[in-house]
Amino acid sequence: MTTLYRATFLHTPENPFTHVDALRAESDGGLLVEGGVIRARGAFTDLSAAHPDAPVTDLRGGLLLPGFIDTHVHLPQVRVIGGLGLPLLDWLDQCALPEEARMADVAYARGVARDFTRGLVGAGTTTALVFGSHFAGAVDAFFEEAALTGLRAVAGLVVSDRLLRDELHTTPERAYAEGKALIERWHGVGRAHYAVTPRFSLSASEGILDACAALMREHPGVRFTSHINENTREIEVVRELFPGARDYLDTYERAGLIGRHSVLAHNVHPSDRELGVMAAARCTAAHCPCSNAALGSGFFPLRRHLDAGVHVALGSDVGGGTGFSLLKEGLQAHFMQNLMPGGVPLSPAHLLYLATKAGADALDLPDVGAFEPGQQFDALHLAPAPGTPLDAVFRHAASPERALAAAFATGTPGDVARVWIGGDVAHTRA
Ligand SMILES: Nc1nc2[nH]cnc2c(=O)[nH]1
Ligand SMILES: [Zn+2]
């Protein structure tokens, strides 16, 4: 099936941190989509002249953006968003972990997975790197739900063997066996990919990190994700638990877990050595600015990451974060960089890149992240309700870039009118 989409669209096929004029915009643009794949892109008049028989979907009056890519979000935490006022380790004990223990019940987990995938797609997220659950049945339920909604999910079994609560602990042997079974069932099936996911070094023995590394070695192409350097107290505990490690990163590095397919969430308090190793390994820091503010974790040193050459993408970190919208994460990133000494001024192009193409690069998914011919048509149509302030800005914006800035400043999931994944409609606003 072929469709010609007519819209004001913006995308960032290049990295605005390294390329000038990285923001590409077409005010009256056309995207020719065939079988879910973008075949041609340009001015609408040119495309409609070249393809006069293609049916037109008219999306004028809003903005069409590449689907958002969330590089850090927790499946079992959708129902505990908003536990404000606690630092990380207390928030885990009091808010997150009691809910995560409920995921042992597969029927409960399936309901959570439904809330979660709807939350993501409804916010315009079309691809996500998901911290699954400590329970394999819940991870299965999530992959099944993701397949039903069409979400591109990179996810895995979360594994820990100390310092959480007993129900959430496993053993290296079980972590390996359950991980292997899930990889065989889901990795590369449809839109799913597997991510080996030790929760964080604080809750992981060397034995379980070695089991994770064995899965990575034996299954090339699976991704790796965990947390790093989020909270100063957490970092102290990790230092005590791994007296032989040079720093937090080294706890993963020594196990052989750091490489091109590694995404480390937060990294609010890195050392220069850690940044150097992350850059050399071409791994990604998932920046979660709402979570960093909500849990009081600190200011993300974006300048130091960029200067070191570390790739950075955005994550919502639901439920330490405050919701699924990467528009809100972009705005919060902008606020935090504005407020911190030596912060990086972030333009609308930077925010769009961090929410889209940067995530595609982090996850090594070249078919998504922008509107390039040959890429999948993953997109969201931002169309605020008539009479809303964002609608007023859209109707009077001097340029698509100004409208994009306003989308980050005031846009919410309520402004996401429709979402496509691989050309299929995955969400339509009620
Ligand atoms: N923000 C956040 N940090 C973590 N570190 C270990 N687990 C978590 C979690 O669930 N959320
Ligand atoms: Zn997290």
Which helices and strands occur, and which strands form pairs?
Blueprint (H helix, E strand, L loop, with lengths): L1 E10 L12 E11 L2 E7 H7 L5 E3 L4 E4 L1 E7 L13 H14 L4 H17 L2 E7 L4 H14 L2 E5 L1 E2 L12 H15 L6 E6 L7 H13 L4 E6 L3 H10 L6 H6 L8 E5 L5 H10 L2 E4 L1 H6 L7 H7 L2 E4 L11 H14 L8 H8 L1 H6 L16 E4 L6 H8 L3 H11 L5 E6 L2 E5 L2
Parallel strand pairs: 1-4, 6-7, 7-8, 8-10, 9-10, 10-11, 11-12, 12-13, 13-14
Antiparallel strand pairs: 1-2, 2-3, 5-15, 15-16, 16-17
Helix pairs in contact: 3-4, 4-5, 5-6, 12-13, 12-16, 13-16, 15-16
The protein binds guanine and zinc ion.
Ions, cofactors and other ligands present here are: guanine, zinc ion
Work out the oligomeric state of the chains in this entry.
single chain
CATH class of the largest domain: Alpha Beta
CATH architecture of the largest domain: Alpha-Beta Barrel
The CATH superfamily of the largest domain is Metal-dependent hydrolases
Radius of gyration: 21 Å
Enzyme class: hydrolase
InterPro entries: Amidohydro-rel, Guanine_deaminase, Metal-dep_hydrolase_composite, Metal_Hydrolase, Metallo-dep_hydrolases, MQNX/HUTI_composite_N
Catalytic activity: guanine + H2O + H(+) = xanthine + NH4(+)
GO molecular function: guanine deaminase activity; zinc ion binding
